[in-house]
Amino acid sequence: MPDPAPPGELVLVVDNDPLFRASVREPLERAGFDVLEADDGDAALAAATRRKPELVLLDVCLPGASGYEVCHELRDRFGDTLGIIFVSGERIESIDRVSGLLLGADDYVVKPFDPDELLARIRTVVRRVSKPRRSANGNGHASGTHAADAELTPRELEVLELLAEGLTQTQIARQLVISPRTVGTHIQNLLGKLGVHSRAQAVALAHRMDFVAHQLHAVV
After folding, report:
1. Full-model pTM
2. N or C terminus of the chain: which is more exposed, having fewer CB within 10 Å?
3. Whole-number Cα distances in Å, 109 to 53, 69, 97, 159, 161
């Protein structure tokens, strides 16, 4: 009798809507992921304790403890060794997405979404936690060395600061009197130096580490 196949990477889907969980489970399992489901925050934390997932797909609005509270608890327990993607069909404004990222989520997806896009985002985050870019200390929390050691140019720092203030690429170009294409180049450069994949993640990282203020003070 052949040995059983090894378990795949685990995604924990946390949502109180069973139809949503089922709609996510099918493409994830086709892609080779193991899937666990939870319908509230307590069940999610219990499931993560039994077997740590690679990624938690976490609805913001849950009965009982909110998705934000669950995210905070998961980060306390596991640090950056698991991925967290918020999903929401109610909290869909820009400030909601930024708040979720500032709380420690890796991404924020608004319902409804294309299943292939969600799968691509999940794979991106799972790759990050499988091969972390930042070293971890003894308790499993990322040390943030990569970002802290990033040497942004004065112009990249200006762009990051304006992104953190909520300006668009066109607005930044107008304020700095450069072309939007040049702003885009600066954004791509700083994303690479900070080791993140999106502008929202760069802004969240800058806020969490007080990175912009620290670096700008060093330049002055």
Report:
1. 0.60
2. N
3. 19, 18, 8, 24, 24
For 107, list phi and psi in degrees, rounded to 5.
-160, 165
DSSP 64-117: SS-HHHHHHHHHHHHTTSSEEEEEESS--SHHHHHHHHHTT-SEEEESS--HHH
Cα–Cα dist 151/193, whole Å: 7
Rounded CA separation 9/35 (Å): 8
> What values do phi and psi take at 153, rounded to 5?
-75, 160
Helix axes of 180-194 and 169-176: crossing angle, nearest 10 degrees: 110
- Determine the Cα–Cα distance for residues 208 and 75; give it in Å rounded to an integer: 13
- 28-85 pLDDT, tens digit each: 999 999 999 999 999 999 999 999 999 999 999 888 888 889 998 998 888 888 999 9
